[in-house]
Design goal:
Length: 402
Amino acid sequence: MGIVAGSKLGQYEIRGDLGSGGMGEVYRPRDPRLGREVALKVLPEAFATDAQRLGRFEREAKVLASLNHPNIGSIYGFEDSSGVHALVMELVEGPTLADRIAQGKIPVDEALPIAKQIAEGLEYAHERGVVHRDLKPANVKITPDGAVKILDFGLARALEGDPAALDISTSPTLSRMATQAGMILGTAAYMSPEQVKGKTVDRRTDTWDFGCVFFEMLSGKKPFDGETVTDVLAAVVRGEPDWALLPVNMPHSVRNLLQRCLKKEVKQRLQAIGDARIIIEETISGGPSLFAEGMEGSAHGAAKAAALRRILPWATALVFAIIAGVLAVAYFIRAPQQTSFHFSTVTNFEGIQAQPALSPDGRSVAFVSNRDGQFNESVQMTFNTLQFVLELLSADVGNSYA
């Protein structure tokens, strides 16, 4: 279906087209009643001819219209004119995230705020029971002022009309894009393993998609890719992302987050996107131990930090003890011009008959002794200076300078 510029759909005058995809063709009309431009998404003809499916979609659209969050593109209404069915949506200016990634991988400090806003939008919708199920860079726009808007929220489920499971053979993200070269491959790369297997999907599918989008932002490459759709789907089910594509010195908290989002077993995957939002916020605010060189570097760094925390108190005590000892020694030998060190009183030194004297360099002590009944007029003993000082202190020896 093609609508040319200048034609009207209901009250809306078409001013141009904005693109097309598996969810339908998108045009840029003006709303004459509200005096603003909007986005008009015309649903595929095959879908519009199915009355039962259309009824389910209208009910779903009402739920989607209730979402009111700064990071989610709003749905304003539903237009039905001359057999053409369209959603009236918020017109979001700016490039898509896919356009930004096409320019090259996004630096970590730029990618984190984008990922945070995506997580905030998903968290809000999940709290209200709405799952996107088709999150990809082409469905995310970045406005000129840096705001992130998630588009086509919940339309995959609305178009399918089955709240329980997804049949890959009828998925709008695949079958409705089958005639557009390259489009199937791009969408299949973001499908979760449970989607590929046709199993029940829930908000953890969005967690997987979030991980895929975040990985591509940081690496510039899809985590799961291949030459054919079969190759891509096989990679989703059995393959692993090339983690070496991620920046070497990126925050290990982000690397760990990506690994948890991309767990193939849904029960092992990050269970709530709000947890991802918290991790990203803490990373942005500069939490502890953010940077590491790869997964092994991260674990090694954490082990070293833990060991340091254990020995730090003992190391500190040892340093203070050494400093105290040095100061004590310095106190006793601070007058090098003195030739002797005399003691006014000596106790607990058996056999010493005269006052001992400390040599000027503080390394020797001299005294006269009659130990074992013999006088030795010049008996000299050498002590470790620090040990001698401590012994003198413990013996309660008075001292004075000559």
